[in-house]
Amino acid sequence: MIYRSARLAAEHETEVFDCGNARLNDWLRGQALRAERAGISATTVWTEPGSLEVVAFHTIAPTQVRRDELPSRTMAAGYGTVPGYRLGRLGLDRR
To answer: Which residue from 12, 51, 56, 85 has the highest number of Cβ atoms inside 10 Å of its Cβ?
Structure first.
């Protein structure tokens, strides 16, 4: 099956989504779009072609890593912090 990938939008159908984890289900239904609109995270959803029903999603958020937390100091190229993205949430519908 080929799925469509898109940023979460109000028209996506999230109510039937169930990954088996109530906290992730609740995040997708009640918080993800609000966080997306506030610019604090980005949620990508997958749907079947011709449908807006969400079958999977992931949410990332900007973050930074302190240089002293990296496995090799050479990776930071002299910077005190290194920008990055954190995978905050990940869910796949049980169907």
So the answer is: 12
Asked if residue 45 lies in contact with residue 33, where contact means CB atoms within 8 angstroms, the answer is: no
Per the structure block, which two tokens stand in for 43?
A: 């949620």
Q: Are 42 and 57 in contact (CB under 8 A)?
A: no
76 pLDDT higher than 60: no
Q: Is the pLDDT of residue 73 over 60?
A: no
* Assigned token pair, 22: 């109530």
> Can you tell me the distance from the alpha carbon of 51 to that of 16, in angstroms, rounded to the nearest whole number?
13
Query: In angstroms, rounded to a whole number, what is the distance separating the alpha carbons of residues 11 and 67?
Result: 41
Structure tokens at 51: 């449908």
By CB atoms closer than 10 A (0-12, 13-18, 19+), residue 80 is exposed
pLDDT at 67 over 70: yes
